[in-house]
Amino acid sequence: VLPIFEVMQKRGNVERKHMYNTFNMGLGMIVAVDADKADKAIKCLEEAGETADNSSSLSCGASYVSAAKI
pTM of the entire structure? Predict the structure, then answer.
């Protein structure tokens, strides 16, 4: 996470989960695909010259989305 997001969180007194719901926290572009298609999506992105990895999983709650490191 880039330092600017920590500053915004502290100065704005914003909960961490709300920061992740509002900003991508410096992760760059996120592509969400079904788990069984992840390897193919990574291969396609890398063939296009992008750097990609399968580093998180997404889950939906009642009013938010959370990303968890795998």
Answer: 0.53
